[in-house]
Design a protein that fits this description.
Domain Fibronectin type III-like: 433-503
Number of strands: 26
Strand content: 25-35%
CATH architecture of the largest domain: 3-Layer(aba) Sandwich
Number of domains: 3
Largest sheet: 7 strands, antiparallel
CATH topology of the largest domain: Rossmann fold
Low-confidence stretches: 180-186, 517-527, 529-534
Distance between the termini: 24 Å
Shape: flat
Keywords: Hydrolase
Mean pLDDT: 91
Family: Belongs to the glycosyl hydrolase 3 family.
Protein name: Fibronectin type III-like domain-containing protein
Number of helices: 9
Pfam family, one: Glyco_hydro_3_C
CATH class of the largest domain: Alpha Beta
Radius of gyration: 28 Å
CATH superfamily of the largest domain: Glycoside hydrolase family 3 C-terminal domain
Length: 534
């Protein structure tokens, strides 16, 4: 996990002060957010496997807090774009046979029935279809017992007609191509739903006619997920309830993030925004209680429009089946979150230095050349003055603070440049530091990045202790590819090696380059980097 910010000094939690308030009553912690209740622990699609168990944040944090501390829990926001998928065996009945499940009729171009079955396990996919099939008809009587407003519909793509409760919910004559399997909106289509007011228990007839797709190299299939949201509080009521808990708490932990609807293998994201109304939840919670820790449960960058206002932010990734226990350990102080960002976090998606990731005539043109990823950010910052990212490549704070005291060249060979970087833990707690060494070319060169990661090493030290990180920068980190000779070559001159906490926080430096032979060396020891941003 990565500590993005901790201006409030909330990490790790002060369990002693949480145990008892000044008035002698037990403390109150509010655990809010959709990912606090239902965390996103691994990627969607074929990257998903069923864990043998799942450690959830609520019981894990409750166990980590002192006895007597009250833990108030509320999702507060909606992270899912569609209502929940329906349980066909529980909610649906075949209107012809009366059996639990949905009735499936596979039809040819003349609407002749090729196959009929009742499927009690319908999950929105119908595969291995007859090559003559062009339409799958999905029919079910859906039980709606709960009084109030239900949302019922189907998520599909391509040619279709969906009728719910005698109302046409969605229709399209567009026939999708074979490439449907690779496109995001086709794998995770937004559902068209209709609101149904229920006073007494009854059933609602759902009748959907869906296009059959025959992609080359895959089984033929149909995509048609039935979704159903039960009556309940409105989105605004959920936000208000969560904010009320936050205002009354001594400490707030709000967990937001992505879901398999927007972050999965097999398709691209269409936005870097957190799905649903999660950003609004964070804004309101921060306004209600400044003692808020925001935890981001996502595997890839997302926009954090409230980042400037948040005082403590922890990036928790997709933490797997032990994710809840891991988060509790970090919050309670059992384990230091000493991770560092392996990518750049943008303020907004328009700032990302990728000219276009959309194929043009079947081709994606990588016109950024060698300035891929964080290198592209550095190029624009140096040449154009920005934009500045929300957090740079390599960033991470941990539990303590560090001073860089100097760097010394220890060895130069034909294979690598070796250096020692001395750092001091200037905080009170034991901590870990990831010492990163970046390489800059002898002279600015449009054909080479502004700087790039050459090597790194992790060290640990107690408060006040100095420790030496030994970093090896391999020869390849200095070399360039000669397109004429098809070989790696070493440009002449010393490169500047700059060590620090991230690509944007470089504190000491020295000049060096690999030797043409074991006897040739160059470089010098220096103190703090005069160009340091620290």
């Amino acid at each position: 996990m990565v500590v993005l910010k901790d201006d409030a000094g909330l990490l790790p939690l002060d369990l002693e002060s949480l145990a008892v308030r000044p008035d002698g009553t037990p403390g109150v912690v509010a655990l809010l957010g959709p990912a606090a209740v239902e965390p996103f622990v691994q990627g969607g699609g074929s990257g998903f496997v069923n864990p043998d168990r799942l450690e959830l944040p609520v019981p894990a944090l409750r166990a980590a807090l002192p006895g007597g501390v009250r833990l108030d829990v509320h999702a507060g926001a909606r992270s899912r774009l569609n209502p929940p998928e329906i349980d066909a065996a529980e909610r649906c009945t075949d209107p012809v046979t009366g059996e639990p499940g949905v009735r499936l009729e596979l039809l040819d171009a003349d609407d002749r029935v090729l196959e009929t079955r009742t499927d009690p396990t319908w999950r929105g996919w119908f595969a291995n279809t007859d090559p003559r099939a062009v339409t799958l008809r999905v029919v079910a009587d859906v039980r709606v017992d709960e009084p109030g407003t239900h949302e019922l519909g189907v998520g599909t793509v391509g040619r279709h007609e969906t009728v719910v409760d005698a109302r046409v919910v969605s229709t399209s004559d567009h026939v999708v191509a074979e490439e449907v399997i690779l496109a995001s909106e086709h794998n995770n289509p937004a559902a068209a739903v209709v609101e149904i007011d229920v006073a007494e228990p009854r059933t609602v007839r759902l009748d959907a006619r869906l296009q059959v797709v025959h992609p080359v190299g895959y089984d033929s299939f149909v995509r048609g997920e039935i979704v159903h949201r039960l009556p309940g509080p409105s989105a605004e009521e959920d936000l208000a309830a969560a904010v009320g808990l936050a205002a009354a708490a001594d400490l707030v932990v709000v967990v937001v993030g992505t879901t398999e609807e927007v972050e999965s293998e097999g398709y691209d994201r269409t936005s870097l925004a957190l799905p649903g109304n999660q950003d609004e939840l964070v804004r309101r919670v921060i306004a209600a209680n400044q003692r808020t820790i925001v935890v981001v449960n996502a595997g890839a960058p997302v926009e954090l429009p409230w980042l400037d206002d948040a005082r403590t932010v922890l990036w928790a990734w997709l933490a797997g089946q032990e994710g809840g226990a891991a988060l509790a350990d970090v919050l309670a102080g059992f384990t230091e979150p000493s991770g560092r960002l392996p990518w750049t976090l943008p303020v907004r998606y328009q700032d990302v230095p990728v000219p276009s990731a959309i194929p043009q005539d079947g081709v994606v043109h990588y016109i950024e050349g060698v300035d891929v990823g964080y290198r592209g950010w550095e190029r624009r910052i140096v040449e154009d003055g920005g934009p500045t990212p929300a957090a740079p490549f390599g960033h991470g704070l941990g539990w303590t603070t560090w001073e860089y005291e100097g760097a010394t060249l220890t060895a130069v060979t034909t294979e690598a440049v070796e250096l020692d970087v001395t750092v001091r833990n200037t905080g009170a707690r034991h901590g870990h530091e990831v010492v990163q060494v970046y390489v800059e070319p002898p002279v600015p060169d449009a054909d080479r990045p502004v700087r790039w990661l050459g090597g790194f090493a992790t060290v640990a030290a107690d408060g006040g202790e100095s420790v030496v990180a030994h970093v090896s920068v391999p020869r390849r980190a200095f070399e360039t590819w000669d397109v004429a000779t098809h070989t790696w070559t070493l440009p002449a001159g010393d490169h500047l090696l700059r060590a620090g906490r991230s690509v944007a926080d470089l504190r000491v430096s020295l000049a060096a380059a690999p030797a043409p032979d074991p006897l040739q060396t160059s470089g010098r020891s220096t103190g703090p980097d005069p160009s340091s941003e620290d």
